[in-house]
Design brief:
disordered N terminus; Creatine Amidinohydrolase, Chain A, domain 1; single chain; Creatine Amidinohydrolase
Length: about 400
């Protein structure tokens, strides 16, 4: 039986032997993949299936910890899983379906699915409650596949990690030039948020980078909106005396498996920071550095660290400074060929993310404090963890920019 089948969106190959090894190590009897109308994009990525295939009927693919996989497909779409190894069974009626589902799991009780108890990690909760109920009625114990997904979706190759550093060098230089451009324009009549977004987009395109929506340039009170997006219609002027936040992200063009680089810096235009601006920046910076240190210490000591623990390290600094209510989002997110990837997020606010931060994964560290009507500060770096060490991949902001 072949170990590798087709390339996945993360740039790796579907590796049956590796999946079965992980199942045995986690004392799980098998991993059930199930989809209907592309409700579970993780299944397509991990199994290397065509994400654009026409799927109108339910399919099931069971990988046992030992032995051969099994496929269950509708007769109308009987070839849907033909790229995968394993024996195939087909169904038509719902009665036939339920009868044949039971045969997938002979000898298996503890089964992983894209499920999270209480929807705690919603990024993994792809399976509907009815399917879970059906399997439990059959005597199966359904456990979360969250850590398995991280292992097969978030772990990056050395070649992929190298692409992150290429993007990092380009974006760091572009951002430095953008601050100088803002300062120059402010001294010569000013500019606006949307104009600076266009400037950044033009430079990134010249550097063979691609991006999603954005980047984000926020001035004054707009910087207090962590998901603000300037447009030509709502753009705020940027003039001398303004506080500015720039959030910029990109990956290499024509390389869909390359790894994103994503950073945020803040600064003031044509003046020195106020005492309050300096206090908020220092608090955010120290929180960021506390999370960085927590991850670095854990990897240096070969100790496991979950996403929620890194979030706590940053959040505790902010709470101690009296600004806990102003930190309204998670500390960081997994990064891969997808900007917000499928590995552990640094989060104990929006979710209690118990997924471990794994070697050869990339993630952001980006605490922020936001004061509506005033300004907001976010300081974002990216980190790559490897066995025995973790490092920040680009420049680290230590003081507010003076543009």
């Amino acid at each position: 039986m072949p170990n590798t089948i087709t390339e996945t969106t993360s740039g790796t190959k579907f590796n049956l032997a590796a999946i079965q090894k992980a199942l045995r190590e986690n004392k799980i009897d098998g991993w059930l993949f199930y989809d209907h109308h592309h409700r579970d994009p993780l299944a397509y990525s991990i199994l290397g299936l065509d994400p654009n295939a026409h799927v109108t009927r339910r399919w099931y693919y069971f990988i046992p910890a030992t032995g051969d996989p099994k496929k269950l497909v509708h007769r109308i779409e009987a070839g849907r899983l033909d790229t995968l190894p394993g024996a195939k069974t087909a169904y038509s009626s719902w009665q036939e379906l339920e009868s044949q589902i039971a045969t997938l799991f002979t000898g298996a009780t503890r089964i992983a699915m894209q499920y999270s108890p209480r929807n705690a990690i919603m990024y993994i909760s792809m399976v509907d409650a009815g399917t879970i109920e059906l399997l439990r009625d059959m005597g199966k114990q359904i456990v979360s596949s969250a850590d398995l997904v991280s292992h097969f979706e978030a772990v990056l190759t050395d070649e992929q990690l190298a692409t992150h550093y290429v993007a990092q060098k380009k974006i760091d230089q572009i951002l430095d030039a953008a601050w100088k451009e803002i300062g120059a324009r402010a001294r010569n009549g000013g500019t606006d948020e949307h104009a600076m977004v266009q400037y950044l987009q033009q430079v990134m395109a010249r550097e063979n980078l691609v991006w999603e929506h954005g980047p984000n340039v926020s001035a004054g009170p707009n910087s207090a909106d962590s998901h603000y997006e300037p447009t030509a219609a709502n753009s705020r002027p940027i003039r001398k005396g303004d506080f500015v936040l720039i959030d910029i992200w990109a990956q290499l063009a024509n390389q869909p498996t390359s790894v994103w680089y994503d950073i945020t810096w803040t600064g003031v235009v044509g003046r020195e920071p106020t005492e309050r601006e300096q206090l908020i920046f220092t608090t955010v910076r120290d929180a960021r550095d506390a999370a960085i240190k927590a991850v670095q210490n854990a990897f240096a000591a070969n100790q496991p660290i979950a996403g929620w623990q890194a979030d706590d390290a940053a959040r505790n600094v902010i709470r101690a400074a009296g600004f806990g209510d102003a930190f309204t989002h998670r500390t960081g997110h997994n990064i891969g060929p997808v900007l917000h990837g499928n590995g552990a997020h640094l989060d104990n606010l929006e979710t209690h993310d118990e997924r471990l931060i794994l070697p050869n994964t990339c993630f952001s560290v980006e605490p922020g404090l936001y004061f509506p009507g005033e300004f907001g500060v976010r300081s974002e770096v990216d980190m790559i963890a490897r066995k025995g060490k973790a490092e920040v991949t680009g420049r680290i902001q230590t003081e507010l920019v003076r543009a």
